[in-house]
Amino acid sequence: MPGTHRELLETLDRWGLPIEPHWKALDGIDKVAAYCAEWGEKRSSGARALAFDTDGVVIKLDDIALRGRLGTTSKFPRWAIAYKFPPEQAETTLTKIDINVGRTGAVTPFAVLEPVFIAGTTVSMATLHNANEVARKDIRDGDRVIVEKAGDIIPQVVRVVDLERTDRAERWQMPTHCPRCQSELVRGDEEAVWRCENTSCPAKLQRGLEHFAARHAMNIEGLGESRIAQLIAEKLVASYADVYKLTQEQLERVDRMAEKSAANLIAQIERSKTRDFWRLVYGLGIRHVGERGAQALAGSFGTMDALMTASKEQLQAVPDIGPVVATAVREYLDQPQNQALIRELAAAGLNMEAPITASSTPGPLSGKTFVLTGTLPTLSREAATEAIQSRGGKVTGSVSKKTDYVVAGADPGSKLAKAEALGISVLDEAAFRSLVSL
User: Fold this and answer.
1) In the predicted model, what is the mean pLDDT of residues 248-267?
2) Distance between CA atoms of 264 and 46, rounded to whole angstroms?
3) Is the pTM of this model over 0.70?
4) Domain coordinates of the chain in residue numbers?
5) Closest Cα to residue 196, out of 213, 210, 208, 214?
């Protein structure tokens, strides 16, 4: 076995296996910095040194034995790091500032641009984040602007090229009413985002249905953005529940929907009724509730009835659910129109219950909460979690006064220190195996 990474690459090359040929072994941080600068210049100059786009250089420790000593965290190795190049920028004209309405009613400005090529794609729109950012950067219609991709992914306007121009348009003002339904916009005292609170707003319905039908939610194949827009325009759906009232005959009358495609969509809608309960909780689009939060809520309360009657304190007692999420869930479930929607979905036959999970069944660890941190010598995190849940215990992601045990392996990080500070019992793998009788 080669003792260094360079020897490994050289060996693979001799064997005729393909390797990226531009790697280089370097001694000292100055040489590493120079190498990164060299490739950064090649990238920014437009020279086609490589057959593919790049966003940085990966720097690795050469000595494989030292890599073992450094180890890894739960997310990345400690013996490698990515040096990211500055984002590519381009100058173009911002033709106008437009408004988007999201599924939660958030009304946000975005820039419509003269198309410009940046980091491998042509960009014609860019985020402006919120009204405060537009004012801070003093962005106006018709400005020449510098645009970049944040993280080489999301286009954003960096700055205006010439703020001193005398022929610039008037300062942009956030509209006072929703551009789709004309309802008055509101903004919370501590928020930067303006919102449309009209539950019947067609823009909110459009984005909300896209989320509801998406793969990670109810997974209704064939109910995408354009199809949803058609159904709203034809006044066939005005809420999520209306999706389950659609008939094949109605769909066949929709433009570009033949008998077969209508039948397929009806079958997908019917199939979605059996999706896991947590997917429905996620699909409802409650603010701050992601997939993990939806799974935690469904697993802890088991039924929609139990979730709807849970107090804010009971919600916050669920692992991974903090005060912000608990407040958002309670506010959503307290609204009469949302209660009516859930009743309609239940009447349509959607799954409103979660199966009893192993962690909710009685066992020797019932009532005990565990946190796993670091890498155990022989047990994977999944195996340790299964061992706890199958015996009635719970596994959470953070240490608190409610934690009973922290199971710590190599490279435990800050969770171990917090457990020790709180006086929580810390188990190594041997002690853990003894506790759960593995």
Assistant:
1) 94
2) 48
3) no
4) 5-84, 87-197, 202-270, 277-347, 360-436
5) 208
